[in-house]
Amino acid sequence: MKHVIIKGIGSHVPDCVLSNADLEGMVDTTNEWIITRTGIESRRICLDTEMTSDLCHEAALKALENANISVCDVDLIIVATVTPDMQFPSTACIVQRKLGCVDIPCFDISVACSGFVYAIDVARNFLLNNLVMKNILVIGADKFSSIVDWEDRSTCVLFGDGAGAVVLSRDNTNDDSEPGILDVLIGADGRRTQMLYCLGWGTMAPTESEKVGKRERFVKMEGREVFKEAIKRMCAVMEDILLRNKLTIEDIDCVIPHQANMRIISAIAERIGVPEEKMFINLQHMGNTSAASIPIAIDEAVQVGRIQSGDLILVVSFGAGITWGASLIRWK
Fold it and tell me: Active-site residue among 66, 135, 174, 288?
């Protein structure tokens, strides 16, 4: 039976650390206010000269090294991001140029914080149904510092920048007891697009309209609604994917939720019954890195020994759209 495995993983975050103390001098907030409401102590922020493609490039090189393959072995690049370098071409094409693996297909997907889970599902289906492709580079990356309103304390304290990458490969010898992506479940509810959005320079924001000022183009969020929906949707998709795989939370070795808010993560853990020792959290020093959140957390969990060979991992995400997703992964 054909399976898709995570052959390699890598991540990259900017050097610049923005602490809560730093934010106290930028916006009307305090360290205590931020920690109490989010659990975040610091986040990484790009320099103006650092682009999303730069984050992707560094994470991709680490993932390729970890997979022990060359850039020439990559058959497709998928970048999940809502902060592309430019409107077009895709950031994936720019990453392809920087890696030097020309002529292979590349594209971006825009699913905000659920982007990585969506992207691995897309890549998984390519590998299972396209016998020509053997290795796909999937990258979740965002430079959210470029689209947040640094005068809005309800949003600017939440986000950080970063990228996480995996090399997905087809393995014809696997079964369910061996490493691989065992299942992915994704969903969306487009009726709730106004709950969390960024107008940016889209066609809903005519450039000639003076009514749409620069600050109106930044991230907007209905915090209470996002909080409630995130808990509801993430709990539901976790329960659904466990049920259809005839598993319980006791079978899971490590749960990696989207690193958005500590109160959301705590509520999910309580409702699903996830023991504290099974939940991996790096939110406190990363903030919400959007599509990069889950792959960065997986990479860090592996590095610190929280994920071991043979472990069964459950990842779960929630993002604008609204979107959500979960995946079961048997680690290599």
Answer: 288
Residues 115 and 61 in one domain: yes
Tens digit of pLDDT for each residue in 41-55? Answer: 999 999 999 999 999
Token duo for residue 113: 């914080």
20 tagged catalytic: no
Taking the C-alpha atoms of residue 151 and residue 219, their distance in angstroms, rounded to an integer, is 11
Which residue range forms the structural domain that includes residue 121?
3-171
Cis peptide leading into residue 89 (ω within 30°): yes
Domain count, the chain: 2
The CATH number that applies at residue 118 is 3.40.47.10
Residue with tokens 């014809």: 172
The residues with which 18 forms a beta bridge, in sequence order, are 43
Active-site choice (101, 113, 235, 254)? 113
Q: What is the pTM of this model?
A: 0.96
Active site residue 113: yes
Residue 216 sits in the same domain as residue 129: no
* 101 phi/psi in degrees, rounded to 5: -110, 70
Q: What is the rounded distance in angstroms from the CA atom of residue 32 to the CA atom of residue 153?
A: 13
Point out the domain boundary residue: 144, 171, 198: 171
**Set 56, 258, 261, 282: catalytic member:** 258
Is 288 catalytic? The answer is yes
